[in-house]
Amino acid sequence: MDKPVRYLTFPDNYFIVSVCQNVSIVQDKGWIEIYRSLEENVIVDFVFRCSVPTEIFYQQSVNELTLYFKPLGIYHFFEADDCEALEENIHLSGFKEISNAIFNEPNRKKQIEMLEDYWLSKFQHKDLTLAYSILADFETELSIEEIAVKNNITRQYVNKISKRYLAKPASEFRKIQRFRNVLISNKKVKNLTELSYEHLFYDQSHLIKDFKELTKINPRKFFDNVDIEQNNIWLFI
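Structure (tokenized):
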């Protein structure tokens, strides 16, 4: 399809590696426009802190490959030990070159094999025990202070680990995670109070406040206009 497509995408805690072939990209905070370029190129984009609603506008269809990594997952493929170093590692890894080869391969089965072979060749074991422990604790009712005590570290160190590996402070990560957990709960619960308490919000007002901050939309309007059964939570505009 060559019809323009415009949609809003919302904050999440994934690390996203995206690569496009023969495009021009114009972007600012909360806004990205992609269109075909007459120049041959391959553009790799790495997103590790998506904290505001972002409007995406495709003027035409393009060749694009996008990979989503769960928090901490991407560190098992690169030498980087913090989120800032990941971008340089990705650009030096040969990902641009293999992506271009995949785009130019007409056979879809072969494309998949090439992509899988690339990532398997990069996989490495890394000891991220403390980071995984803190990540799991973020999904509980424990306060940041209690998480620190549980892991025998200070509150400040919890925040340091969160910013180092997850690209955002602990409070921001948890806010976005609560929001995302509501979206993937697969329960079409229309009662906001029930939703609030199921997903560790203090009350309904807390849920509404976070939703408006992360989506710019009231939660009732959000659920009326977004299909949360889809893997990608987008609002087409």
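The first strand starts at residue 5 and ends at 9. The mean pLDDT is 89.
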